[in-house]
């Protein structure tokens, strides 16, 4: 009697990283991408496979575990794609070495990309400018930090960004580099936009048409900014570009747990309402003035050209092969 097929072995660290990404212990698109790539490197290093086919199957299984954690954060699958792109070899040791080299190259590229992006974004900021931020973006912070290093004095209105209050992280980081920070509740954004020179937001994904998928509340902020005549700039490394949208795929909007919004006791007091907690929304390109990347600044309608240059006409998931 034949037994059930054996599932490829995935090392414990990969499962641990996946759990931390899913629970948002690990957050931020660049950090997620870096950690996911490193986890594939650990999978390769600790694999006990005897055959190249088994090694490849384990690597694909590890990638699937990581990929399933955060469906909207495209930096994660882009990191996996990058690592898989250069996995070559006819023996287990050759494959292991190629994974290690690919992971190291990707992580070095991430470091360089954020520095380059910071320099591009800082060029939009002038001495004395006031910015408004939403959520927490290391790409946005790179732009502001570089501007401060250039000697520019800046101030910021920071939206607290409920329900997880990621804006508090941004406020702390900006205060540390000498930016004058005013923390505001999300619903007060429109009130203070007249005092703002730029709205700076990050992105979890950018679609081929230039739409920006970012933390819920970004779209409403962008509409209000356009109404007030305040430029809105998205700072995003090219690992945020979603190659699947070139071939018509849509971006999944992650729904987070009700417990982030209300606990059981509070819910019971108000009749146990249905709670919807979408993590992201979509800002149409007509509300975005520019997308800043490590390769330069682009109007949203030009992103499709950059995406084709980087990814061709789309990209499959090599871990599903």
UniProtKB/TrEMBL annotation:
Q: Does the keyword Isomerase apply?
A: yes
Q: Which domain of life is it from?
A: Archaea
The record lists the catalysed reaction(s) as: alpha-D-ribose 1,5-bisphosphate = D-ribulose 1,5-bisphosphate
Could you tell me the keywords of this UniProt record?
Carbohydrate metabolism, Isomerase
Q: Which InterPro entries does this entry report, sorted A to Z?
A: IF-2B-related, IF_2B-like_C, Initiation_fac_2B_a/b/d, M1Pi_N, NagB/RpiA_transferase-like, R15Pi
GO-annotated biological processes: L-methionine salvage from methylthioadenosine; pentose catabolic process
State one Pfam family annotation: IF-2B
Q: What is its EC number?
A: 5.3.1.29
**Which family does the similarity line name?**
Belongs to the eIF-2B alpha/beta/delta subunits family. R15P isomerase subfamily.
Q: What does the UniProt function comment say about this protein?
A: Catalyzes the isomerization of ribose 1,5-bisphosphate (R15P) to ribulose 1,5-bisphosphate (RuBP).
Q: What else is known?
A: Reaction proceeds via a cis-phosphoenolate intermediate.
Protein name in the entry = Ribose 1,5-bisphosphate isomerase
């Amino acid at each position: 009697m034949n037994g059930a097929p054996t599932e490829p072995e995935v090392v414990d660290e990969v499962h641990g990283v996946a759990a931390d990404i899913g629970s948002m212990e690990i957050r931020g698109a660049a950090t997620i991408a870096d950690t996911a790539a490193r986890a594939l490197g650990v999978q390769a290093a600790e694999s006990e496979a005897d055959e190249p086919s088994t090694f490849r199957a384990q690597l694909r299984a590890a990638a699937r575990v990581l990929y399933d954690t955060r469906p909207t954060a495209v930096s994660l699958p882009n990191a996996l794609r990058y690592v898989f792109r250069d996995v070559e070899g006819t023996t287990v040791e050759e494959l292991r070495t190629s994974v290690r080299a690919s992971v190291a190259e990707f992580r070095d590229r991430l470091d360089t990309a954020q520095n380059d992006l910071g320099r591009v974004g800082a060029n939009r900021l002038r001495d004395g400018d006031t910015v408004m931020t939403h959520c927490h973006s290391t790409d946005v912070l790179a732009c502001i930090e570089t501007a401060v290093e250039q000697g520019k004095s800046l101030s910021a209105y920071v939206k607290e960004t409920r329900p997880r209050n990621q804006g508090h992280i941004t406020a702390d980081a900006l205060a540390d580099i000498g930016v004058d920070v005013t923390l505001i509740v999300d619903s007060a954004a429109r009130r203070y936009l007249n005092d703002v020179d730029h709205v700076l937001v990050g992105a979890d994904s950018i679609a081929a048409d230039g739409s920006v998928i970012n933390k819920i509340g970004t779209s409403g902020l962008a509409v209000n900014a356009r109404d007030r005549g305040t430029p809105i700039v998205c700072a995003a490394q090219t690992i945020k570009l979603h190659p699947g949208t070139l071939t018509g795929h849509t971006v999944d909007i992650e729904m987070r747990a009700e417990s982030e919004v209300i606990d059981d006791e509070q819910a019971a007091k108000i009749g146990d309402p249905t709670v919807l907690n979408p993590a992201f929304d979509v800002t149409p390109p007509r509300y975005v003035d520019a997308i800043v990347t490590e390769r330069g600044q682009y109007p949203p309608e030009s992103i499709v050209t950059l995406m084709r240059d980087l990814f061709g006409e789309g990209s499959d998931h090599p871990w599903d092969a």
